[in-house]
């Protein structure tokens, strides 16, 4: 340690970790709804990336955080509905469609970024609306990471209990759970399976877009090609690890956020490790987590299975 | 089970319900037709359902009963015909529509979501605001649970309940919404006879409350036991309707004969009755049992776990002799499937031993079992027995593709495969355009013949068949049974697992009864009768009366 | 069994109507998009075709490009036919490429050229295979579904190769993080009379091997059974675990071999942050070829010229190369829709309710009829696009 105060370091790690966790949480919440409804959305990576680009593009031109975030959400939503149309209405394989959407998004955002920005690294001049909560922000170590943040950071975390409530305490949540577990039963009980699944994937797509928007607009204020580098897929894996429980998803997301923060932090501490080496950790961690939890999870029984009335 | 004072006096119901006035018609189905590809599943069927009446819809498998019900419940749309509810013509486009019209359905395969609680299942699909408010519903539900002799908590997850309990939850779910028409599709198929009595007492009570109950079944006795009216379907057409005056009282046995004739048409009544009506004749030559004393297969203290980790077969022992058909009777879901799979090597024993002809086979896997001479015909023909996208020929050699001459080293010999398939198709009269035809284009009966042919082509010592005649037409079913008998007569050992007592009695040399994963008794055919087997199937001890 | 001896029959052509329709629609929608962006779509497409197909130089590049695509898609086809999702092709490719680059460069001068190249190919294959071993083990030992694990292994591979090439495997004599260069004279030789290296021949050999595998061998038959109905595979006593692992390992190995082919034939070295992303292209290619080995060849040619032609589009038509990736995504999306339509209009497609309805592009089977889980499936499931025009 070359003279860096440890408590400062921990605060910095916590701060970065929480920041890195936000997009994973946002995308993970949406994915939790989609998966509980029976939709495995491998297009999440593409939806997030599109959220990044369109959010950035709108924010760059309007210099408005709100417009940027709305554009990001819209981009994810549109792709989510395309995914929904192909997998719900046309009943095409979800993995195939998910990959197609991810490929398409990678191409589309790369194309547009080159075309519109010439591949230059420009940043969007948005005001991220920093909000420091008085008193709380002065708590040592955790004060700054938790209570001196952008408005959207609080909003992101605030969505966690909202989703927990949505899934368990509302009619929509009940329908979602029934549709993912036994669509025939849900249909027989008068639940509109198709509509419920469309709503679920709309939420999943919108949240993935939101996550991308957070990344590119609120957090980094720049776009780079392929900037999500698998975070969508990580969010998907965390969702499964957390078994669709928003609070458990949060734990997973923070854990992996911290791992990523570590990659940035260790060199600062003077530890001689290449960032690529630490960069592997989150992905290895996911696999280890899956091994540990193997056999202890019950997926929604109809995950990945299309529904058509009259065919059982 | 059902001893509550709410129960209607069943005995009274049996000896002939008191004459009732016909209630008002709630539902009228007029001229309903529905076609699936080449099959006309419903052909111009009309049906009237009245308040306070139990209406049985009777027919063989494939007669169109379920299709008709699915039209009323909104799962299918009819190609033509109209549905009137209380005299008003309505269009039922979805199950939600049907529910709104007060038509509730209990499907054959239950439609509860296993990992939702009872209350969540019951309020699923009702419209009562965005935020779930369970307090009021829970109060109502608790009262209903008490009414139905269910002591489950509304917060219990449904997967913890027994099948009988789940069925009552299904009925409660329908009534909770105030449905006045209750459709039940083969409701007794998963129940023990005691549970069946409980169900019938519930139905009789609902009847007194003015609900119109539709009982869809292929079991004649059952239909007659509780119904006020019986409609008979045959090959998609309604071939008869009998009112309570014909069903009840002294005319009943004559009526039975008439119904059987209607259900099966011109086919010889003796034959069908033997298979369908429970009044089984003994096998003509069947008093002696033809087993030799050579043991081909023995299970010793076999314990096996089912898919959900429950002990499905517990400490079961049996001996199977050359030359015999050993029938295994039991209510569905008492470990039959697991028993078949463990012999076939498809399921892992946690305890016990399997010995085939003095060779230890315990946990040696499917391939070893097949090689050693165990044949297994699964009850899930399409889901497990064949590869849907592949041809008849490719399916014919599924289990012996690694043998000569079908392959040599790593290479397939397609000519030999083709030749074998042609031979099997001819020998077993499998109706298929060619051996290159996709196997899924064949009918269920022809697929079954192919699967049986496939096993016999490997000349097994022991053949295990799980429900081999399920869903087959009478002719094919008899072909399959005859083939099994021939195999036994040729010195093989056949284990016939079935829930059709008639075919067990007709074919077996000995009969065993499986209940809750245990073999309760095995006795020679000569000592077997329906009553004794039926009694054991419910878990009663042998030679003892069921406690009333 | 379709009649043997004929590679292409009229009946076997019909499934490709969907593929062609998907390609056509992708070009159409892509073109409209280009016009909307103020580009000259016709010019862009003309350049695409001119560069990729128009002259000897372009054709040479296209044929060179076919080598890795044929090899990687041949391997992917094995895994998809067996119902196993290998989405980790890129990671396997990178590891194979790096290992081939390092071993090849180390052997240059010490052994004969052919031996060096052979060694490079072998370690390339081995590298990809090793990379696929992890998900294969996780799948067979712990029942972890391969979708997530192969995806994760991609990113581990990307980081690992990047770390190695910046550290231990780096050519110290150079500023840029690269492995030691294999001299041009020692790389894969050209096919006589052309400038296309023999990787193309290797690719064709792979395709032939895969075609033979599924047409004539017991293993291919078993993989087909597994992919189409895993429960029947268990019922028939097939070695399901070993087949699943083998499908993953073979496809991983071929992905690694594709990496070796690119390094030994074209690049000459492995450099940091080089990721051609053939994995996604491979998916589009194998699906459009309807999982039919023979059809891999024309479709590999098609995708090759897209990639090569796409390289010229930025300069000459002001269209970024990412346009090709976008087209691939569009093709897959339209392919999915077209296959649905195919199910509606195919003869005999009017299914009866009683008939076992065979899904057109079947459920990913993440969860089949028996309750299983992505995290711990009871038995193998995976993709089972039912290939029509099936050679077997």
Task: Record keyword descriptors for this entry.
heterotrimer; A: 312 residues; mainly alpha; two-stranded antiparallel ribbon; 13 helices; 2 strands; 71% helix; globular; C: 392 residues; 14 helices; disordered N terminus; disordered C terminus
What does this structure look like?
The complex is a heterotrimer of chains A (312), B (548) and C (392). Chain A has 312 residues and is an all-alpha fold. In chain A, 71% of the residues lie in helices and 2% in strands. In chain A, strands 1-2 form a two-stranded antiparallel ribbon. The N and C termini of chain A lie far apart (64 Å). The mean pLDDT of chain A is 87. By secondary structure, chain B is of the alpha/beta class. Chain B contains 20 helices and 22 strands. In chain B, the strands form five sheets. In chain B, strands 6-7-8-3-9-10 form a six-stranded mixed beta sheet, with helices on both faces. A six-stranded mixed beta sheet of chain B has the order 16-19-20-13-21-22, sandwiched between helices. Chain B has a four-stranded antiparallel beta sheet with strand order 2-1-4-5, with helices on one face. With 392 residues, chain C is mainly α. Helix content of chain C is 66%, strand content 0%. Chain C has 14 helices and no strands. Chain C has helices at 10-13, 15-36, 41-54, 56-81, 89-107, 113-142, 146-166, 199-216, 218-228, 230-235, 240-267, 278-288, 293-317, 322-345. In chain C, helix 5 packs across helix 11. The model of chain C is unreliable at 1-9 and 347-392 (pLDDT under 50). Chains in contact: A-B, A-C, B-C. At the A-C interface, helix 4, helix 10, helix 12 and helix 13 of A face helix 6, helix 7, helix 12 and helix 14 of C.
């Amino acid at each position: 340690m070359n003279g860096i105060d440890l408590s400062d370091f921990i605060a910095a790690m916590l701060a970065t970790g929480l920041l890195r966790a936000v997009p994973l949480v946002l995308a993970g919440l949406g994915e939790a709804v989609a998966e509980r409804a029976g939709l495995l959305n491998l297009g999440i990576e593409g939806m997030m990336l599109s959220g990044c680009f369109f959010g950035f593009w709108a924010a760059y031109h309007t210099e408005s955080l709100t417009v940027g975030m709305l554009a990001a959400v819209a981009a994810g939503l549109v792709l989510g509905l395309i995914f929904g149309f192909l997998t719900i209405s046309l009943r095409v394989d979800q993995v195939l469609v998910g990959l197609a959407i991810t490929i398409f998004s990678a191409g589309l955002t790369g194309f547009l970024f080159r075309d519109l920005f010439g591949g230059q690294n420009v940043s969007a001049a948005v005001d991220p609306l920093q909000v420091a909560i008085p008193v709380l922000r002065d708590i040592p170590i955790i004060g700054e990471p938790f209570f001196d943040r952008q408005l959207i950071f609080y909003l992101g975390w605030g969505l966690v209990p909202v989703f927990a409530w949505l899934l368990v305490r509302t009619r929509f949540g009940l329908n979602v759970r029934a549709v993912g577990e036994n669509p025939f039963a849900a249909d027989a009980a008068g639940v509109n399976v198709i509509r419920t699944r469309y709503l679920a994937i709309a939420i999943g797509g919108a949240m993935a877009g939101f996550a991308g928007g957070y990344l590119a607009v609120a957090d980094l204020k720049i776009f780079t090609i392929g900037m999500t580098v698998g975070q969508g897929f990580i969010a998907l894996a965390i969702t499964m690890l957390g078994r669709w429980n928003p609070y458990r998803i949060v734990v997973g997301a923070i854990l992996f956020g911290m791992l990523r923060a570590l990659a940035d932090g260790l060199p600062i501490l003077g530890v001689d490790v290449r960032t690529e080496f630490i960069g592997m950790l989150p992905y290895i961690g996911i696999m280890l987590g899956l091994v540990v939890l193997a056999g202890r999870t019950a997926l929604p029984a109809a995950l990945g299975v299309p529904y058509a009335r009259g065919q059982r | 089970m059902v001893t509550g004072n709410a129960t209607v006096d069943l005995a009274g119901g049996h000896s002939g319900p008191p004459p009732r006035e016909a209630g008002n018609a709630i539902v009228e189905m007029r001229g309903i037709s529905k076609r699936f590809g080449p099959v006309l599943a419903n052909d111009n069927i009309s049906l009237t359902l009245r308040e306070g009446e139990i209406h049985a819809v009777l027919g063989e498998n494939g007669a169109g009963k379920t299709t008709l019900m699915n039209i009323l419940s909104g799962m299918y749309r009819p190609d033509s015909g109209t549905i009137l509810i209380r005299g008003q013509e309505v269009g039922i486009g979805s199950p939600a529509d049907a529910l709104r019209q007060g038509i509730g359905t209990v499907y054959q395969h239950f439609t509860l979501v296993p990992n939702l609680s009872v209350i969540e299942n019951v309020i699923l699909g009702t419209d009562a605001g965005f935020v779930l408010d369970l307090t009021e519903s829970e109060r109502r539900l608790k009262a209903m649970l008490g009414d139905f002799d269910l002591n489950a908590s509304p917060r219990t997850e449904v997967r913890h309940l027994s099948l009988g309990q789940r069925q009552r939850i299904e009925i409660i779910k329908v009534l909770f919404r105030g449905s006045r028409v209750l459709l039940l599709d083969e409701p007794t198929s998963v129940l023990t006879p005691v549970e069946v009595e409980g169900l019938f007492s519930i139905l009789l009570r609902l009847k007194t409350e003015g609900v119109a109950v539709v009982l869809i079944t292929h079991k004649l006795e059952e239909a007659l036991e509780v119904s006020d009216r019986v409609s008979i379907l045959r090959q998609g057409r309604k071939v008869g309707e009998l009112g309570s005056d014909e069903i009840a009282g002294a005319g009943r046995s004559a009526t039975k004969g008439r119904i059987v004739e209607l259900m099966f048409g011109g086919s010889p009544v003796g034959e069908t009755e033997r298979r369908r009506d429970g009044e089984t004749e003994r096998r003509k030559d069947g008093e002696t049992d033809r087993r030799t004393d050579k043991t081909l297969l023995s299970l010793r203290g076999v314990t096996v776990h089912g898919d959900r980790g429950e002990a499905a077969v517990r400490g079961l022992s049996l001996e199977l002799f050359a030359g015999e058909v050993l029938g295994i009777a039991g209510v569905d879901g008492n470990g039959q499937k697991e028993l078949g799979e463990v012999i076939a090597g498809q399921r892992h024993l946690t305890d016990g031993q399997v010995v085939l002809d003095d060779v230890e086979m315990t946990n040696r896997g499917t391939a070893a079992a097949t090689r050693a001479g165990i044949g297994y015909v699964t009850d899930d023909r399409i889901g497990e027995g064949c590869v849907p996208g592949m041809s008849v020929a490719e399916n014919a050699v599924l289990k012996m593709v690694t043998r000569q001459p079908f392959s040599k080293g790593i290479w397939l010999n397609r000519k030999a495969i083709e030749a074998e398939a042609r031979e099997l198709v001819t020998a077993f009269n499998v109706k298929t355009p060619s051996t290159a035809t996709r196997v899924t284009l064949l009918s269920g009966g022809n697929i079954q013949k192919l699967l049986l042919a496939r096993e016999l082509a490997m000349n097994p010592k022991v053949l295990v068949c799980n429900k081999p005649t399920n869903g087959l037409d009478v002719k094919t079913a008899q072909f399959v049974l005859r083939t099994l008998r021939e195999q036994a007569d040729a010195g093989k050992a056949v284990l016939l697992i079935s829930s059709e007592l008639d075919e067990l009695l007709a074919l077996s040399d000995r009969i065993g009864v499986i209940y809750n994963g245990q073999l309760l008794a095995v006795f020679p055919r000569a000592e077997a009768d329906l009553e004794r087997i039926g009694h054991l199937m419910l878990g009663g001890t042998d030679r003892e009366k069921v406690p009333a | 069994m379709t009649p043997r001896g004929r590679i292409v029959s009229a009946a076997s052509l019909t499934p490709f109507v969907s593929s062609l329709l998907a390609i056509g629609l992708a070009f159409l929608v892509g073109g409209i998009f280009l016009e909307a962006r103020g580009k000259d779509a016709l010019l862009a497409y003309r350049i695409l075709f001119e560069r990729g197909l128009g002259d000897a130089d372009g054709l040479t590049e296209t044929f060179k490009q076919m080598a890795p695509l044929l090899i990687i898609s041949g391997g992917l086809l094995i895994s998809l036919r067996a119902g196993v999702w290998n989405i980790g092709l890129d990671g396997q490719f990178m590891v194979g490429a790096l290992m081939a680059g390092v071993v090849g460069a180390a052997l240059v001068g010490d052994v004969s050229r052919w031996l060096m190249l052979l060694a490079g190919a072998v370690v390339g294959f081995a590298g990809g295979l090793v990379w696929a071993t992890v998900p294969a083990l996780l799948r067979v030992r712990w029942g972890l579904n391969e979708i997530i694990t192969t995806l994760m292994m991609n990113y581990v591979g990307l980081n690992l190769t990047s770390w190695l090439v910046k550290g231990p495997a780096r050519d110290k004599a150079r500023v840029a993080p690269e492995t030691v260069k294999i001299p041009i004279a020692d790389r894969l030789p050209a096919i006589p009379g052309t400038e296309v290296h023999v990787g193309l021949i290797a690719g064709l050999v792979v395709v032939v091997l895969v075609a033979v595998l599924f047409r004539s061998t017991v293993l291919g038959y078993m993989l087909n059974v597994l992919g189409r109905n895993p429960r029947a595979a268990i019922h028939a006593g097939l070695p399901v675990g070993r087949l699943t692992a083998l499908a993953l390992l073979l496809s991983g190995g071929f992905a690694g071999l594709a990496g070796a082919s690119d390094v030994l034939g074209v690049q000459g070295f492995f450099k940091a942050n080089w990721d051609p992303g053939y994995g996604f292209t491979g998916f589009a290619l194998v699906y459009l070829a309807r999982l039919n080995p023979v059809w891999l060849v024309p479709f590999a040619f098609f995708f090759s010229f897209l990639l090569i032609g796409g390289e010229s589009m930025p300069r000459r038509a002001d269209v970024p190369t990412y346009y090709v990736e976008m087209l691939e995504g569009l093709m897959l999306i339209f392919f999915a829709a077209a296959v649905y339509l195919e199910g509606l209009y195919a003869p005999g497609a009017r299914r009866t309710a009683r008939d076992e309805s065979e899904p057109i592009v079947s459920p990913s089977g993440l969860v089949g009829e028996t309750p299983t889980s992505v995290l711990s499936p009871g038995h193998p499931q995976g993709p089972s696009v039912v290939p029509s025009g099936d050679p077997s």
